[in-house]
Amino acid sequence: MIKLKNLTKLYGKLTAVDSLNLEVAQGEVFGFLGPNGAGKTTTIKMMAGLLQPTSGSAFIGGYDVQQEPLKAKLIIGFIPDRPFLYEKLTATEFMRFVSKLYDMDDAEKEISGLLALFGLKEWADELVENFSHGMKQRLVMASALLHKPQVLIVDEPMVGLDPRGARLVKDIFKDLASKGVTVFMSTHTLEIVEQMCTRVAIINKGVIIAEGSVEDLGHMARMPNSHLEPIFLKLTGGDEAVS
Amino acid sequence: MTPSFQHGRVFLLLAPRYHAVKNSLNRLAPGDGLKTVVLFLLGLGFWAFMFGVSYKVLAYFRTIEGLGDLLALRLLSMILLTFFSILVFSNIVTSLSTFYLSGELDILLSSPVQIETIYRAKFIETIVDSSWMTLIYGLPVFISYGTVFKVTAVYYFGLVLTIIPFLIIPAGFGIIVTMLLVNAFPARRAKDILVLIGLLFFVVMYILFRMLRPEKLVDPDAFPTLVQYLTAMRAPVSPLLPSNWATETLSPLLRTSRGDTWFSLLMLWSTAAASIVIGEWVCGRIYYTGWSRSQEGKRAPLSRSRAADALFRLLSLPFRRKMRAIVLKDVKLFFRDTSQWSQLFLLFALMVVYIYSFKLLPLEHAALPSFYLQNLISFLNLGLVGFVTSAVAVRFVFPAVSLEGASFWIIRAAPISIRDFLWAKFWSSLLPLLVLSEVLIILSNTLLKVTPFMMDLGIVTVFMMTFGITSLGVGLGAVFPKFKHENVAQIPTGFGGIVYMIIAMMFIGVVIVLEAWPVYRIFTVQTLGGRISLSGWAGIAVSFIMVVIVNIVALFLPMSMGMNRLKEGDI
User: Fold this and answer.
1) Contact call for residues B525 and B532 (beta carbons, < 8 A)
2) Which three-class secondary structure state does DSSP give residue B334?
3) If DSSP codes are grouped into helix, strand and coil, which group holds residue A215?
4) CATH number for the domain formed by residue range(s) A2-75+149-242
């Protein structure tokens, strides 16, 4: 469902993403990990069509994001780490706007259902500027699911969410995956990766240094049966800095 | 999925703006209605003023036999050329924001929306944002032309048909220039460069205009020069400029000249259509690449040298430790933000023109004794210097608190009192304002060759007033904070800025009125002879004591109000 082929991005002389190759199958929950500045957001932005790769390609559902952007974007649900929201719109108005962007004729039922699912029903007619950070995050997630995407690309989904919200999001992602939706998730919350992800890739300095299930990564780090945190620190060299 | 559903989506992309305006109007906070009414009335007043001035000038021109209509027509041509230049620049700057820096682009570009659809929606957004003010304040000028020339309804119909393409052409051109610029530089750096070029352009034009001495146009002694001036104006402007086509369209409708309205109108409309089509073609080819590049751009670091750092540290040395941190941060941010430090050029131009204007005063031709007049003007000069200092303060000092923006929480969370915070802002603003106001008063008084008494009075009064003006700026800036702003220019143009200017003017007025009487007494004695009685001296002393008291109140009251507002904590 997702295929990255020699995906590369240069910022001047700095190589942010270096010949990335990756495949994610339908229905997988894929964890994309890495230290700060490793190239996660750059990769995600290229997948969502927000950034032009210097070379290489990103295919979503078989569509090259650069060559057939509209077809690719139609099946992507994108949740950025720092989402922009129109502060002077109400939650419902914002959802309606997004539904029209995706050419949905009558989405009132879906809008109402999603706002309820994300605990925003009471706030449906409130201006977004009055929302807390967590509420804004939930609204963005609701809007990303509105057009029933086949691929969900999420950058830091748990930032700003309370435990109930985080639990809700985990359940929703699992449910989506069981229905065949591919979830590509970048996060620093390793516990969530352990609980949810079928496969994981770790990127460091623009290069994928490890890929596989959490168990596979344990073997690579020679730390079988260990939690992901020490594995991650060892593979990214962060354990030296910690000690 | 076919792209057929793209049709008619341009207005969908504009819907958030419509809803935002609607929601803002439906959910006015207490006091917002009053602010809107005050701003509306001020705008209306300015509109009426523009109409009045244009009407008077045009009516005066019509009384000049033979030359009047030509002069009115040339004036129209100059106005349209000026508008066109402003619109081109304004569209370049606006399209940088709408096409490259706006936050909503993340949503639009990650959605299945064609680039061409985004172009059309952003075109409309750009044209509205960059042209509404020129349009609103251009209308009284065009209407005054219609009134003075007693035109028929055809003129107004032609005016509408002229204005629409006249606004579209600079928008289309500006957007294309922006797209080419962003493909050459990252968007943020392109914005810095544009701000600087625009400002320097304005400063040079402003100084040049002043040096041309436009006051000669109303001086009968300079009439031969005026004829020469008119002859020079007879030289046609480039026939390829849209402003020329607009003039050619409107002038037959004003019945001032014969011409082919239809040909010029056709030129305007065809160029407007071409600018849209070419813009869309350029957008389809280079916009996405440019936008992607704009994600990579870093802000231009213009003051990060070690020498600048050492200088800033030196400047902040007199402050206590915590206050020093705030001052140092403010100075660094000021010199790293092009939209801020570039305004210093404007300040420089203001000073040059101010001083130059005093140099030109024809005091020797005046009917009143020159000695008396020089001192009188010097006295009025006090008020003018106060006004200029306030105008500078509303731009640089009033936004001081608001500029903390979303980072204000750092100050609130830090172990620093609001008192220290505000006084740090005060002292760091006071020094540059004192330099400005004292330079202005000393140089202008020197050019006026005033008496030592007036020179001393000017220096002391301006010194004291600057404390009050600074305090009003910092204090009222804290009373009316605008932490959510997209650029600095929005802060002083809001309601708080207007309140500040009104109160600052009242403060300066009170000081001047309190000094007027004793100064008048002293002058009368000096010029006509006689003595001032003991009670007279007492009255003079009381007046000067009142001046000191007013200045002390102006220094402490606004600061205290500002502190209380910030301590309320509901920010």
Assistant:
1) yes
2) helix
3) helix
4) 3.40.50.300
Check if the beta carbon of residue B475 is closer than 8 Å to that of residue B389: no
CA atoms of B353 and B337, how far apart (whole Å)? 26
Same-domain status, B13 and B141: yes
Tokens of B416: 């620093």
Choose, out of B1, B22, B107, B298, the residue to mutate when testing the contact with A (most A CBs < 10 Å). B107
Q: Alpha-carbon distance B290 to B284, whole Å?
A: 11
Question: Is B330 inside any structural domain?
Answer: no
Distance CA B6, CA B12 (A): 10
Mean pLDDT of the B455-474 span = 94
How high is the mean pLDDT of chain A?
A: 89
**pLDDT at residue B162 greater than cutoff 80:** yes
Nearest Cα to Cα of residue B342 among B211, B202, B500, B501: B202
A51/B contact by beta carbon, under 8 A:
yes
Nearest Cβ partner for B1 among A49, A71, A80: A71
Both B280 and B359 in one domain: the answer is no
A80 contacts in chain B (CB < 8 Å): 106, 110
For residues B161 and B68, membership in a common domain is answered with yes
In a domain, B316, yes or no: no
In this structure, the strands spanning A199-204 and A29-33 are parallel
Q: Which of B87-91, B137-141, B293-297 has the lowest mean pLDDT?
A: B293-297
* Cβ pair A89:B288 closer than 8 A: no
| Residues of B with Cβ-Cβ distance to A100 under 8 angstroms | 9, 12, 15
Q: Give B17→chain A minimum CA distance, Å.
A: 9
Q: Where are the domains of chain A?
A: 2-75+149-242, 87-148
- A46: tokens are 């290229």
Please give the average per-residue pLDDT across A120-146, as a whole number. Answer: 90
* Structure tokens, B40: 């509306």
The verdict on residue B195 lying in a domain is: yes
Domain match, B76 and B220 both: yes
Query: Rounded to an integer, what distance in angstroms lies between the CA atom of residue B385 and that of residue A46?
Result: 56
The number of folded domains in chain B is: 2
- Residue B349 sits in the same domain as residue B289: no
- Percent composition of chain A: helix, strand, coil (DSSP 3-state, to 5): 40, 25, 35
Which has more confidence, B513 or B303? B513
User: Is B549 within a domain?
Assistant: yes
Residues B22 and B127 in one domain: yes
B290 and B346 share one domain: no
Q: Which residue of chain B has the CA closest to A128?
A: B20
DSSP codes of every residue in B261-318: HHHHHHHHHHHHHHHHHHHHHHHHHHHHHHHHHHTT------S-SHHHHHHHHHHHTT
Tell me, rounded to whole angstroms, the distance of Cα B380 from its chain centroid.
24
Phi, psi angle pair for A210, to nearest 5°: -160, 145
Closest-CA distance, A174 to chain B, in angstroms, reads 24
Mean pLDDT of chain B: 81
**Which residues in chain B touch residue A76, judged by CB atoms under 8 angstroms apart?**
110
What is the 3 state secondary structure string of A26-82? Answer: CCCEEEEECCCCCCHHHHHHHHCCCCCCCEEEEEECCEECCCCHHHHHHCEEEECCC
Is the CB of residue A76 less than 8 Å away from at least one CB of chain B? yes
Q: Is the CB of B104 less than 8 angstroms away from the CB of A49?
A: no
B100/chain A closest Cα distance in angstroms:
12
- DSSP-H helix ranges across B64-186: 68-96, 105-109, 115-148, 153-184
Radius of gyration of chain A, Cα coordinates, nearest whole angstrom: 18
Domain of B382? 342-399+428-567
Interface test with B, best of A52, A67, A136 (most B CBs within 10 A): A52
Q: What phi, psi does B507 have (nearest 5°)?
A: -60, -50
Is pTM beyond 0.80? Reply is no
B45 and B166 share one domain: yes
